[in-house]
Amino acid sequence: MDTLGEIPGLPGLFVAGIFSAALSTVSSGLNSLAAICLEDFVKGIFYDKLSDEKATSISKFLAVGFGVISFLLVFVAEQLGGVLQAALSIFGMIGGPILGVFTLGLFFPWGNSKGAFVGTLTSFVFMFWLGFGTNIEIAKGNLVIPKLPVSVDGCPQANLTIQSFPKQGESGGVLEFYRVSYMWYSMIGCTVTILVGLFVSFLTKFQDPRELDPNLISPPIDRLVRFLFPEFRHKILWDLGRKMRDAKETINRSSHEALRKQSDGVLNKAFDYDHTETKC
């Protein structure tokens, strides 16, 4: 726009291209949300059998509903500061708990379904409270994060280290917690999910690693634990799939025993038949 803005018609073409790209992305996202909601919730929970006509109508209403919600979120995004801060904050609030539940399932064989569900839900609630609470306090003026000076005009030649910077706005209580940078949101959400998930799992009969399929746990982590803690791993029940292997061996022995008895019975009958024919 700054370079070719003088050419007639080019600014309008540029704006039209931006709007076309944005609308195509938004329309595909809304239709995907409507289709997933229709298949997983409407058909999966409420109505098992839907005609194509009703399914199409419900999908359209869902798309409109998600569009309205997206429009209302514009007013929320307005209070989130810059584009980079808003994007990283939202990604941290949503991506952190999701990363945590995957980490819980891949690296911690004691976690169960209840722990994963409660941990993820708790992390979502906590991170949304932290993210939106921070931005609400910033909008109210109670929390002001000053920008650090970057100019070097008038600085002495020697290098100086400033130990602390003056804070602006109110301080103390929850506001001090709101000063956590949005760059930490992903790690905080992931950590809360893992800790709460393990805590709830141990309260609600944790998953016995010996009964777990070893393919469900990250193989490098399994080999690392076996290598670093050869003795201690038995105390924490880190013997993935041992009971499954024992059960398979028992079934195999039973099957072989049954086949052996069956084959012995057939051979005995054949021997008795041959012996009878010989007497005759």
What would your notes on this structure say?
The protein has 280 residues and is mostly helical. It contains 9 helices and 2 strands, in the order H-H-H-H-E-E-H-H-H-H-H. Strands 1-2 form a two-stranded antiparallel ribbon. Helix 3 (83-107) runs parallel beside helix 6 (185-203) and helix 4 runs antiparallel to helix 6 (185-203). The mean pLDDT is 79.
Quick structural gist:
The protein is mainly α and 280 residues long.
User: Are there runs of 5+ residues with pLDDT below 50, and where?
Assistant: none
The amount of beta strand, in percent, is under 5%
For the largest beta sheet, what order do the strands appear in spatially?
Answer: 1-2
Category by helix and strand content = mainly alpha
Tally the beta strands.
Answer: 2
Number of helices: 9
Rounded mean pLDDT score: 79
Shape estimate: extended
Q: What profile does the largest beta sheet have? A: 2 strands, antiparallel
Percent of residues in helices: 55-70%
